[in-house]
Design brief:
It is an enzyme of class 2 (transferase). Pfam families: Prenyltransf (PF01255). One of its GO terms (molecular function) is transferase activity. The longest helix is centred in the middle third of the chain and has 21 residues. The N and C termini lie far apart (41 Å). The chain has a domain of 172 residues: Decaprenyl diphosphate synthase-like (Undecaprenyl pyrophosphate synthetase). With 247 residues, the protein is of the alpha/beta class. The protein has 10 helices and 6 strands, in the order αβαααβαβαβαααββα. It is globular.
């Protein structure tokens, strides 16, 4: 029944009201692992395996940008016994996406907090796909919304200092547009739709600045169980809403 239901959902989507940028909080890998009696690393590997299908679903409906939150700055405080395998799984997943040359990858986050090997692999994937004319995929690793805003303001101040501006001149130039121009996602459209899996109904710091006018969809499925039908339901819900953009 699901293939027929999925096909009906896809046919009935309002193509004039689809999101251009989707942010996804890939949540629930550890709970999924516990539910199937496996170790945490198995859950993270199952979650990583679901990334490629998601990107394919996004391509099908014409999404232009996807931001995937794979690891928060808080996650960097996890025990080494969990963090080290997780970083390897993330790096392997990004390498695999890059090897296909279907998507243009852009790592975002406090990359300086990551181990050198992880950071270099993420940057290598970005360089290897820089000329790909496809879906732009922001890979958020070591990402925190508050950290991003702080980094943006710091970058703005240092830019003013390098230009020889006074403190007063720098302060006068601090506005919404100036901060936006220094975010990790500068130059990109803000997310239209943010999806969080696992039933949690909070942002947890994801795209705090960029999501001010976003629509949110919270899905009960744990990330490794997230299916195309769940994705289509999220997009349908988005298309049916009247977007007010803060008005």
């Amino acid at each position: 029944m699901y293939p027929a239901y999925e096909a009906r959902l896809a046919r009935r989507l309002d193509t004039a009201r689809l999101p251009a940028h989707i942010g996804v909080m890939l949540d629930g890998n550890r709970r999924w692992a516990r539910a199937v009696g496996a170790d945490t690393a198995h859950g993270h590997r199952a979650g990583a395996a679901n990334i490629e299908p998601l990107l394919g679903w996004c391509e099908e409906i014409g999404v232009e940008v996807v931001t995937l939150w794979l690891l928060s700055t808080d996650n960097l405080n996890r025990a080494a016994s969990e963090l080290e395998p997780l970083l390897e799984i993330i790096s392997d997943a990004v390498d695999s996406l890059a090897d296909q040359r279907r998507w243009r990858l852009h790592p975002v986050g406090a990359l300086d907090l990551l181990p050198t090997a992880t950071r270099e692999r993420l940057k290598a994937a970005e360089a290897a796909t820089a000329d790909v004319d496809g879906l732009l995929v922001n890979v958020a690793v070591g990402y925190g919304g508050r950290r991003e805003i702080a980094d943006a303001v710091r970058s703005l101040i240092l830019e003013g200092k390098d230009r020889g501006l006074s403190v007063e001149e720098i302060a006068a130039g601090v506005d919404v547009d100036a901060i936006s121009a220094h975010l990790y996602t500068r130059g990109q459209p803000d997310p239209d739709l943010v999806i969080r899996t696992s039933g949690e109904q909070r942002l947890g710091g994801f795209l705090l600045w960029q999501s001010a006018a976003s629509e949110f969809y919270f899905c009960e499925a744990l990330w490794p169980d997230f299916r195309r039908v769940d994705f289509l339901r999220a997009v349908r819900a988005y298309a049916q809403r009247e977007r007010r953009h803060g008005r």
